[in-house]
Amino acid sequence: MIYLDYQATTPLVPEVLAAMLPWLQNQHANPHSAHGPGRAARAAVEVARDWVEGLLPEGGALSFTSGATEALNWAIKGAGPGRIVTLATEHAAVLDTLEALAKTGREVVVLPVGPDGLVDPDLARAAILPGTALVAAMLVNNEIGVLQPISALADIAHAAGALFLCDGVQGYGRYAIPADCDLIAISAHKIHGPKGVGALWIRDGLRLHPLLHGGGQEAAGRSGTLSPALCVGFGTAARLMQERSVTDGAHVESLWKAARAVLGPEWLVNGAQDARYHGNLNLRRQGLDVNRLMSDLRDIAFSAGSACASGSGRSSHVLRAIGLTDVEARSSIRLGFGRCTTEAELVGACIRIDAAARAQAFTA
After folding, report:
1. What is the pTM (predicted TM-score) of this model?
2. What total number of domains does the chain contain?
3. What's the domain range around 86?
4. CA-based nearest residue to 97, from 113, 111, 78
5. From residue 104, how far is each of 37, 72, 98, 99 by CA, in Å?
6. Which of 32, 131, 154, 166 is the most buried (most CB within 10 A)?
């Protein structure tokens, strides 16, 4: 199997598994217990927290969560009353949460984006007015890899007296997350860590209403027993992202160029050509039957859209938001690659994808 679905999840790397195993096998103490084994577990959690915070701005504190979905829900629901502004290309964890709040009477503004997937700062400035409580935007789009102007949006939010929430999931460890964010949601399994653990970074002095009520184990008020194994896995993955940032970045650029050399002009890139993460290659080809393509290439794992909306029967809301027709959106694929992808794997997969697509056109 050739795995090309890094935006859905990244492979768990051996170093992370090795760091987690002792905490799964025999170091089972609750990190919130006062006895010796509990204190040892707590110490491991705090070391992991330091590693995860090492890729985030200074001036804030990190609370572990069950994942980015919880972190985003907590940030949105905990920020207090007032208008919320976001973008049409945000993750379902943001858009569906805001839809639920809107049904309770909360004012929600969803800004459109251009064909490149980027929001117009002037349009944002006109919508983010005094009385806005929160602005939420994604650093790297999970479907098309586009990089939003996060610093500019944060500045606009602050000028209106609003907080700024950055969904940093896809960009964490790959790009420096701007220091002017107030809230940052991240997830371990997008950086070669385990599933089931994420975090919310909260700027110093900011207090959120709790999303979960209980023991209040995390200092910012998040309740629930932490898993030392998951936290250690997250921390180890974050440490490796720091150590390998230059190597990983160069590898991704090389893979991008190799894939684009195989998938020629018949394959059109969705979204911005330049302002994007090159480990995400979202392409469309006229007349492509993606379901048939995936059936023909079952030993290549790639996506027809966001994994978070798979099975819904709907075409991608992100692709529709950048102006694609339903037919164009359904003729798009997403190839995601990174640290564990070899150039030979990617080139071989792209050659087969291109050949299968051409065969469809020939038999149509």
Report:
1. 0.96
2. 2
3. 14-242
4. 78
5. 46, 18, 10, 9
6. 166
Please tell me whether residues 138 and 109 are part of one structural domain: yes
Q: Which string of DSSP letters, residue by residue, matches 109-155?
A: EEE---TTSPPPHHHHHHH--TTEEEEEEESB-TTT-BB--HHHHHH
Do 347 and 259 contact (CB within 8 A), yes or no? yes
Pairing of strands 183-187, 132-138: unpaired
100 Cβ neighbours under 8 A, 6+ residues apart: none
Give the C-alpha separation, 48 to 58, whole Å.
16
Residue 308 is a catalytic residue: yes
Out of 188, 207, 242, a domain closes at 242
- Express each pLDDT in 78-136 by its tens digit: 998 999 999 999 999 999 999 999 999 999 999 999 999 999 999 999 999 999 999 99
Residue that is last in its domain, among 220, 242, 264: 242
Verify that 95 and 213 share a domain, yes or no: yes
**CATH number (domain holding residue 109):** 3.40.640.10
**DSSP structural state of residue 265:** T
CA dist., res. 138 & res. 321, Å (int): 15
- CA separation (Å) from 59 to 53, 147, 157, 181? 10, 24, 18, 10
Q: Both 255 and 183 in a single domain?
A: no
| DSSP summary character for residue 276 | B
Position 139, amino acid? L
Catalytic annotation, pick one of 166, 308, 340, 350 = 308
Are 155 and 78 in the same domain? yes
